[in-house]
Amino acid sequence: MNLTPIQKLDLVLGILAEDTENTSVYKIVLKSGEKISADNTVLVLKKLVNDNYVNDISGDVWSPLAPNNQNSYSITFEGLLFHQQGGYSGQEKKDKLKIRKDNANIIAVAVGAGLAGLYGLFEMAQWFFHHFHWHLPF
User: Fold this and answer.
1) pLDDT per residue of the chain (138 residues) written in tens, 0 to 9
2) How many CA atoms lie within 13 A of 52 on its CB side?
3) DSSP-derived secondary structure for 58-114
4) Are 36 and 3 in contact (CB under 8 A)?
5) Whole-angstrom Cα distance, residue 18 to residue 2?
6) How far apart are CA 129 and CA 126, in angstroms?
7) Closest Cα to residue 14, out of 1, 31, 30, 26?
8) SS3 of 134, please?
9) Number of H helices, E strands in the chain
10) 8 Å CB contact between 70 and 60
């Protein structure tokens, strides 16, 4: 089963949320049931570190498959909160919902403006016909 990038991010974030101690890439790969490779895990961890959801506690030597990997990672408090709020998939859903709401608001404003414009034209036509004593066709 191929995971999407968002699923990979949520998977690694979830693993780190379960084990708040320092965790190596090797442990993450094992805990994921090898659903994600070591190389992909490293990429995901870099993204999580950049987003400030994970701390990188690095040593000088790095080997992603070594059980005694000296690169360790731990989840931050912001990472725990983000994970509890649905993670990246939850954020994606919230973003899509916000876009839908924004589009609905734009449509509502456009319809309202159109109706107000038509009403204004109707009032102007009424005034024009009344002012010049013409008979209204309606």
Assistant:
1) 688 999 999 999 999 999 777 888 888 888 888 889 888 999 999 999 999 999 988 754 455 544 454 578 999 999 999 999 999 999 999 999 999 999 999 999 999 999 999 999 999 888 877 777 766 565
2) 3
3) --S---TT-TT-S-EEEE-HHHHHHHHTTHHHHHHHHHHHHHHHHHHHHHHHHHHHH
4) yes
5) 23
6) 5
7) 31
8) coil
9) 5, 3
10) yes
CA distance 78 to 51: 10
> What is the distance between the alpha carbons of residues 28 and 39, in angstroms, rounded to a whole number?
11
Q: How many residues does the chain have?
A: 138
The pair of three-digit structure tokens given for residue 117, joined into one six-digit string: 């414009």
Structure tokens at 15: 């693993």
Whole-angstrom distance, CA of residue 22 vs CA of residue 18: 11
Q: How far apart are CA 54 and CA 58, in angstroms?
A: 12
